[in-house]
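Mods, move this if it's the wrong board.
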Amino acid sequence: MQSREDGGDNWQAVAGQLFPQGHGIVRQGAVLSGSARLNGQPVAVVGTCGHAAIGVEVALAQARAVLDAMRDHPGRPIILLVDTQGQRLRRRDEMLGINRYMAHLGKCIDLARRRGHKVVALVYGQALSGGFVTSGLMANACYALPDAAIRVMALPAMSRITRVPLERLQQLATGHPVFAPGPENYLRMGGLAAIWEGSAMHIALTMALHDCPRLDFRAAQGAQRGGRKLAAAIIDAIVEGRHVQAP
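Not the wrong board. C-alpha cells:
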C-alpha cells in the first residue's frame, strides 16, 4: 500500500482489491467516477486520486457524478474513494467561491443519503481539511487504510495561523486527538468507523455496506472512545433544550 509520505497514485491497486469482480472506474484528471461490481451487485464509485487539490472543477465533477448516480441508479450504493490534500489554494478558486462549490458537493452526498443510497467512504491516500469534510465525512460511514494520512492541518501551518507556539501544539497533540494526525486519532474521535487492517478489502467493504448506519453516531462513538468527550452531550442538550456544564 501507499505510505503516508509517498506521493504516488495507487488508486488502481486499491480498486482492484475492492472490486475483484471487475470495475469500470475512469480517471479524468484528479477525479474518479464509474461503476463496479461487489458480490455480483453494482455500486457507483466517485472519488479523487493523486493527492488531489479540490478546486472548483474537481468539486463540480464529483458532485455531477453523485447526481448522475441518483438519477440513473436510484438507491445504488455509492463508494467514495478519498485522496485529497484539501482545498486548492489559488486566488482564482477563492474569487469563484470555492467554499460554495465544496458545500454543493457535500449537499449532493447528503441528498444521496436521504434518498436511500448507502454511502461508504474509504481514505486510501490523503485526507485533509475541507476536501475531507465535504467528501469522506459526509458518508454514512468512513473508513481508512492503516497508511492513510489524515489531518485537519499540519501543525506548523496551524501554529502560523493560530500563533500558538509549535512546541505547545506538539504537546497538545500527544494527548488530544483533535490536534494529532493519523487515522488512529480520527478513529478515537468517531470520524472513522474503523481502520481496515489485516482483512481482504472487498470483504471489509461488503461488511461496511451491510452495517451502514442510517443515523449519525459519530459524536457518540467519539465519546465512547475518549476522543470527543463533550460533542455528544452538547448535541443531546441542544435537542432537549438543556444546559451543559463544562467540566
